[in-house]
Automatic annotation (TrEMBL), chains A, B:
PANTHER family: ASPARTATE KINASE, ASPARTOKINASE. The lineage of its organism: Bacteria, Bacillati, Actinomycetota, Actinomycetes, Kitasatosporales. InterPro entries: AceGlu_kinase-like_sf, ACT-like_dom_sf, ACT_Aspartokinase, ACT_dom, AKii-LysC-BS, Asp/Glu/Uridylate_kinase, Asp_kin_monofn, Asp_kinase. Belongs to the aspartokinase family. It is an enzyme of class 2 (transferase). Residues 268-353 form the ACT domain. It comes from Streptomyces narbonensis. This is Aspartokinase. Keywords: Amino-acid biosynthesis, ATP-binding, Diaminopimelate biosynthesis, Kinase, Lysine biosynthesis, Nucleotide-binding, Transferase. The keyword Transferase applies. It catalyses: L-aspartate + ATP = 4-phospho-L-aspartate + ADP. Pathway: Amino-acid biosynthesis; L-threonine biosynthesis; L-threonine from L-aspartate: step 1/5; Amino-acid biosynthesis; L-lysine biosynthesis via DAP pathway; (S)-tetrahydrodipicolinate from L-aspartate: step 1/4; Amino-acid biosynthesis; L-methionine biosynthesis via de novo pathway; L-homoserine from L-aspartate: step 1/3. One of its GO terms (molecular function) is aspartate kinase activity.
């Protein structure tokens, strides 16, 4: 019996009852003979309440002090969780990110973990304790300031600790039963996936699946830490994410893992770009300098008559205004005609390693969309993913059509509650 | 212009408005040319809310995890205060007790400061920052665990930091205008004291005055740090506590500093104690072993006929049950007849260095009580204090009578709001 890292999101510890329920689950794991390290997020709405307070004292709260403030949230939940476990007759100690050895860079509000030195956690485990660690936070290597890891940070904390402690699994407890073949709010017949490879999970996360964030899966793949995504309410087996299926997960690998969609992006088209070397570089340099993350990029062949081409790309809606501003500033230097901005788009992605060896997948995908009357505006592919941009209004219908066409529908059509994992 | 340490209690930072008001006061001090270190308590009711949560998950929250939980309170207030200061255009950084170098022993929930190593605070000040430090908390020397200092701990943090940083003054901001000659809720004509010696302040604190706790004053006296107790609302000069009055505080020292009272104690009388060596020691050993703090002790001469005597002592009401239990257990070993427990008592104390050279004070004190028809049950004295125990019902009347008899009444009789300083 090895070491297990468990992560519980804010909705699992939203109140005293939730904390007691989670404590019992942790103690059960300990009773099974495991050493247990628990990573916990702030209780329910705590983070929102702290942000609200911050905005009341300062219109632009950010940086070092904002991190100091937000980390109070996990401090509360982790101490309460340790108390609840002790109340069940087991030893527990809570540790801040800093105490747990989560070392980060100095980028406040979205720091990256650069090292984990869990000496105190090891000692606590060796002394028979369950170790409770604050998710989402660390301490900066240079200044020893408190940092936070940004959205999904607690999942990353859990995986990083699992890697540093050589855990046998990192269990991510959430309010859904696992990773599904599509968003169950859109596709009633979506099925829970029993096992999925790191690669497919990375593509799903990059394509709009919210259950696990890309960064966390990437970390798990790098250190080969199996992730088990499961519900803190049901106790059922969830979805295993790993290199190779083990034991009960040993199912024949599906050609297609799932269908993801994303309606949080907008599309910018740069119209009338001179078709000569360096033009695309100039456009994306202007956008990158503003620290805007772009997703898909498509350039058509230029019209022979004009020597001009159009370049389209997608990016988070929240960054649309800034990107337009930056491009307008660089307009004369780059030399394009105009910009078109469109935030009524959606993206549908089909993900599966089986694509590599099944050349018919792309054709079947387009046929399914065509049969559903969905018009395609942009296409982009990777080795194991194909994504299209459509009108936002068409997204749900498109996802359902593709899900059915690839035989992913379950026989049952019972509704599944689906939500995010918090931070 | 030197370094000033300011401490703000929970009532001063109870909400966003309070935090902004305090931020402005801090910035004004900085503008006057001072380096400023601020010690802050948790906002208003935060601590009570955290305790309430703890009790929901565990009936006996205490120790290491309880300290971890409670320290979230100052983390929130200090980060918000730093943000509010930055919003006014000044640089500020917040520090936990641990970051500020507040090193304590390992007694959770009531740790004692054993060293202060404020290297990071010095650096922050040298870089032009206002340093905000979490009150009430530190880190244990041996295990590096988070500790709390117990009631009044933020005041002690402030004085300890002032000593370690060689501050010119430690300002304790609270919701009253200073230290008064008596509790203004009882004596409407109580006067604010402009200056009081450490010694007299120590006696007042030990006798029931709540404005400053004994431990904090003791620390200030040991390191000779002047304390200025003042209102965070009015901005008026408050009460200076120091070795010698300075400048505007140079008033002729009063014979009597003030009248304190305390109705939080109970009296235990051990009846029929054999009058032989070692009996008192056995009684107080039994009580001390249970870690009960006793206050006054009185033993009368024994009746010649029986060779038996009575020993009375006072102690906090909250510890009365435990003391009775311990004494009953030791009854046969000690050999007394019975125990009497009385929690309807009050204590009135007259404090002033002038007593040493004014032998009439004691007589005047008893006459004032007698004229007011107050019966005295126990008497205890120090060089600069005289205390009596009376019926609890007589306390207010006794305090007023003594206050008037020693000429402490102000001419004004406007009501003054009086309260505690929080923790």
């Amino acid at each position: 019996m090895g070491l297990v890292v468990q992560k519980y999101g804010g909705s699992s510890v939203a109140d005293a009852e939730g904390i007691k329920r989670v404590a019992k689950r942790i103690v059960d794991t300990k009773k099974d003979g495991h050493q247990v390290v628990v990573v916990v997020s702030a209780m329910g709405d705590t983070t929102d309440e702290l942000i609200d307070l911050a905005e009341q004292v300062s219109p632009i709260p950010a940086g070092r002090e904002f991190d100091m403030l937000l980390t109070a949230g996990e401090r509360i939940s982790m101490a309460l969780l340790a108390m609840a476990i002790k109340n069940l007759g087991h030893e527990a100690q809570s540790f801040t990110g800093s105490q747990a050895g989560v070392i980060t860079d100095s980028v406040h509000n979205k720091a990256r973990i650069i090292d984990v030195t869990p000496g105190r956690i090891r000692t606590a485990l060796d002394e028979g304790n369950i170790a409770i660690v604050a998710g989402f936070q660390g301490v900066s290597q240079d200044k020893k300031d408190i940092t936070t890891l940004g959205r999904g940070g607690s999942d990353t904390t859990a995986v990083a600790l699992a890697a540093a402690l050589d855990a046998e699994v990192c269990e991510i407890y959430t309010d859904v039963d696992g990773v599904f073949t599509a968003d169950p709010r859109v596709v009633k017949k979506a099925k829970k996936i029993d096992w999925i490879s790191f690669e497919d999970m990375l593509e799903l996360a990059a394509s709009g699946s919210k259950v696990l964030l890309h960064r966390c899966v990437e970390y798990a793949r790098r250190y080969n830490i199996p992730i088990h995504v499961r519900s803190s309410f049901s106790g059922l087996q969830g979805t295993w994410v790993s290199n190779e299926p083990q034991g009960a997960q040993k199912v024949e690998q599906a050609i297609i893992s799932g269908v993801a969609h994303d309606t949080s992006e907008a599309k910018i088209t740069v119209v009338g770009v001179p078709d000569k070397p360096g033009e695309a570089a100039a456009i994306f340099r202007a956008v990158a300098d503003a620290e805007i993350n772009i997703d898909m990029i498509v350039q058509n062949v230029s019209a022979a008559s004009t020597g001009l081409t159009d370049i389209s790309f997608t990016l988070p809606k929240a960054e649309g205004r800034k990107a337009i501003d930056e491009l307008e500033k660089a307009k004369s230097a780059i030399g394009f005609d105009s910009l078109r901005y469109d935030d009524q788009i959606g993206k549908i992605s089909l993900v599966g390693a089986g694509m590599k060896t099944n050349p018919g997948v792309t054709a079947d995908f387009f046929k399914a969309l065509s049969d559903a009357g969905v018009n395609i505006e942009l296409i982009s592919t990777s080795e194991i993913r194909i994504s299209v941009v459509t009108r936002a209004d068409d997204v749900n219908e498109a996802v359902r059509a593709v899900h059915t066409a690839f035989g992913l529908d379950s026989d049952s059509d019972e509704a599944v509650v689906y939500g995010g994992t918090g931070r």
